Structure to design on (156 residues):
């Protein structure tokens, strides 16, 4: 299912509060930090080279995505890592997360990447099935208790 009109938008003073108001379902909270916490982490860790956007349909914010974009050091040095992906509880199961991943994958490929990484905390209700359907595979690495996944791009 493709959700038309999904696009990424920079977070500014004009839309920050609306994006920060997005929430996941109660049972998902243990897997996904809030937008406010994500923005705080981005500010606290500039060395991770955070890159974040609001996910929109038209003028309505429906999600949030944050990457560590080719950080200069650390375990993901020079790589693209999805640090946070959140779709608001009112907009889930409509293909928005998948479309967001499609757009992120296109952006990192355009930046010369051969892979896109992410990780998840295992447990009941975990996001693994979502990532698996998209084509992510476990790398065999564990980062701070989270299972690291990789989406490999075919050589063009």
């Amino acid at each position: 299912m493709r959700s038309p009109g999904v696009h990424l938008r920079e977070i500014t003073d004009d839309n920050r509060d609306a994006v920060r108001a997005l929430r996941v379902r109660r049972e998902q909270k243990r897997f996904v930090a809030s937008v406010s916490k994500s923005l705080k982490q981005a500010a606290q860790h500039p060395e991770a080279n955070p890159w974040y956007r609001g996910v929109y349909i038209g003028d309505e914010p429906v999600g949030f995505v944050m990457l560590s974009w080719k950080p200069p050091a650390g375990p993901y040095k020079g790589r693209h890592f999805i640090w946070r992906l959140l779709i608001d509880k009112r907009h889930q199961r409509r293909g928005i997360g998948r479309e967001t991943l499609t757009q992120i994958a296109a952006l990192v490929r355009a930046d010369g990447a051969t892979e896109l990484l992410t990780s998840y905390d295992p447990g009941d209700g975990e996001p693994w099935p979502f990532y698996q359907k998209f084509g992510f595979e476990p790398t065999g690495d564990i980062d701070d208790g989270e299972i690291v996944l990789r989406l490999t791009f075919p050589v063009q």
Summary: The mean pLDDT is 89. Residues 96-110 form the longest helix (15 residues). Residues 6-152 form a domain with the Aminopeptidase fold (CATH 3.40.630.30). The longest strand covers residues 60-69.
